[in-house]
Design brief:
12-stranded mixed sheet; single chain; 11-stranded mixed sheet; 2 domains; Jelly Rolls; 13 helices
């Protein structure tokens, strides 16, 4: 891949938290770094033995200390995030990182954290605590192992949490998913740009470093064929059905504006674990995959929290020494969607509750209308039709698509009169009714859909697809995207037959945002959102009827914004040797990921 292509794709493949975090390392303890190789149980797909290319950092201390395994993101390698790992080592941890199979100098095939990669992680833990291991023997406490990982490394965290390994005391999953299918194919709609981008940037054809299953999954996601297989494979690599297997404390860190893994997955994970009495902490902020920015101050403070969490769970540090994680179980730093920067404030809560405000979608024109807290009068409000705009102007020129309308006995319409996007807005907020959104919005749309093709499967065909976006419109009319979502309804059994009027309910991506007085809340509903999402290839018309609504969870369960002081580390920063010669933040992210 040439340099120009690397910079372009880095905007999508990078994890904002990886590039900037932990640039300051403490000099409390001298450390030594060793490159080593870890033989693992599972061979590659041809039956050849595999050894993990690894790096271990050992502090110069007289007694054994806890161990931490640091797993890199997709396409990364053992050397990523060295300054963070060195920081942990200087503060009394043996830190092991290794290159996942199929990447870098570790042979084997990438399998989206399939069974072999899960076993590699267990083998790495066993290697770290092995009393016969000459490199780390006597340096690591055998029953005090933690793990930290972002994105692909976060999937490792959840896999280790559910493994039940007796030496593992805590994990810290960052910017990741608990169910890969729900995250990458929400409501059977593939997040097109992510699997295609990851697949292209990590594949090394001459080394055949992808498993056949990985090849098949990506092909099926892109084409929409055999999505049942995709769901089965991705769910098998996920937390679904395994929540009861987690019996260790977990610190969940997720981005509010992460376009790959929305905040929904983290909030639901927090509720799953706390409902079982598992000690769980949740941080939501402006970190993660693009468009997350990842401000240095926010990330530095966040990694102070990670270190304090590890100190508590692995060293038994008292609350007086872990002040950043004792305020509450939930901490949220507000962030928008694009180009959001942390303003230095956070909010706290100990649980997620559901106070809410509902807005009804009222039609006032053919292209949309208003958002109102009072329901419309059905007899006085007409339904709004939407057409599958992915077909474009050719919709009326093709025999299959035009037959959809002719078969209904209807004249062919002017496409400009049937929009692909509907827009609804509130009146400008006042200081008394401005809304503070904190959580997962829910849409309840009353719809009738008419589709052309009688049979299909999730992902390939749909009775209709709708893609909401939520905007903040300032007094000058400038709109800022805050959140988005998608929904795909399966086809019914007969062509050219309108489905009966029904309500379809789905969740938008989670959001945490305060709309100011003078601003307006805008919702757009579109029939496609390419290239971010894979559009359905099934021609359809869907009508949105009176009574359709969206419910926003409000921030009443959160404390008022608290301005926090970021105290700089007194030690000088580590010389940024890995940054030399790079000319943009995008290249920084890409280099940090090893792509």
């Amino acid at each position: 891949m040439d340099k120009k292509s690397r910079v372009f794709w880095s905007k999508f493949a990078g994890v904002a938290i990886v590039a900037l975090a932990g640039a300051v390392a403490s000099a409390q303890v001298s450390i030594q770094t060793f490159v080593t190789s870890i033989p693992v149980t599972s061979p590659d797909d041809s039956g050849n033995p595999v050894s993990l290319d690894a790096e271990v950092i050992i502090p110069d201390l007289p007694d054994a200390v806890p161990g931490v395994i640091w797993n890199h993101g997709f396409g990364g390698h053992k050397g990523n995030d060295r300054s963070i790992r060195e920081r942990l080592a200087r503060n009394g941890y043996v830190v092991l990182s290794y290159t996942s199979r199929g990447f870098g100098d570790t042979p084997g095939q990438v399998d989206l954290l399939g069974p072999k990669e899960q076993q590699d992680l267990i083998d790495a833990v066993d290697w770290l605590i092995d009393p016969g291991n000459a490199l780390v023997a006597g340096a690591v406490l055998p029953d005090s192992i933690g793990q930290v990982g972002a994105s692909y490394g976060g999937l490792h965290a959840w896999a280790l949490a559910r493994s039940g390994h007796p030496a593992v005391r805590t994990v810290v999953p960052i910017a990741t998913a608990t169910n890969l299918y729900d995250a990458m194919v929400p409501y059977d709609v593939t997040m097109m740009v992510w699997p295609v981008g990851f697949y292209a940037t990590g594949f090394v054809p001459e080394e055949q470093n992808y498993s056949n299953t990985f090849h098949q999954i990506v092909l099926e996601m892109v084409t929409g064929v055999n999505m049942q297989h995709v769901e089965a494979e991705l769910t098998a690599r996920s937390m679904t059905g395994h929540w009861d297997d987690v019996n260790i404390p977990v610190f969940i860190i997720q981005g509010i504006n992460d376009s790959l893994f929305p905040a929904n997955t983290a909030m639901k994970a927090f509720q799953e674990l706390t409902s079982r009495g598992i000690e769980t902490r949740l941080y939501l902020g402006g970190i993660g995959h693009p468009p997350a920015v990842g401000d240095g101050d926010e990330i530095e403070r966040l990694f102070d929290q990670v270190e304090q969490w590890l100190n508590r769970q692995l060293k038994g540090a008292p609350e007086s020494e872990t002040p950043l994680i004792t305020t509450s179980d939930i901490e949220i730093a507000n962030a928008g969607y694009f180009n959001s920067h942390w303003d230095g404030t956070v909010r706290y809560a100990d649980d997620i509750t559901t106070p809410s405000r509902t807005y009804y979608l009222k039609a006032t024109s053919a292209t949309g209308g208003t958002l109102s807290t009072t329901p419309p009068l059905p007899l006085l409000t007409l339904p709004l039709p939407m057409i599958n705009t992915y077909a474009g102007s050719g919709y009326l020129d093709e025999p299959v698509t035009s037959e959809l309308l002719l078969g209904l006995g209807l004249p062919l319409p002017n496409l400009s009169q049937i929009p692909g996007v509907l827009t609804f807005e509130t009146a400008p907020f006042t200081s008394s009714n401005a809304i503070d959104v904190a959580g997962i919005p829910t849409f309840d749309l009353k719809v009738i859909s008419i589709h052309q093709l009688p049979v299909g499967e999730p992902g390939l065909l749909a009775a209709f697809q709708v893609n909401p976006k939520i905007w903040d419109v300032d007094p000058q009319g400038n709109a800022t995207l805050i959140s988005r979502g998608t929904f795909s309804e399966p086809v019914n059994s007969a062509p050219l037959v309108a489905s009966p009027l029904h309500t379809t309910t789905f969740e938008n991506f989670g959001m945490f945002y305060t709309f100011e007085a003078g601003h307006r809340l805008r919702i757009t509903l579109s029939t496609e959102d390419t290239p971010y999402l894979r559009p359905t290839t099934n021609p359809f018309i869907v009508t949105i009827h009176p009574g359709s609504k969206v419910t926003f969870p409000t921030g009443q369960w959160l404390s008022a914004p608290d301005q926090v002081a970021v105290v700089p580390d007194p030690e000088p920063p580590v010389p940024p040797t890995i940054f030399e010669g790079l000319t943009s933040v995008q290249e920084l992210v890409f280099d940090a990921l090893g792509l």
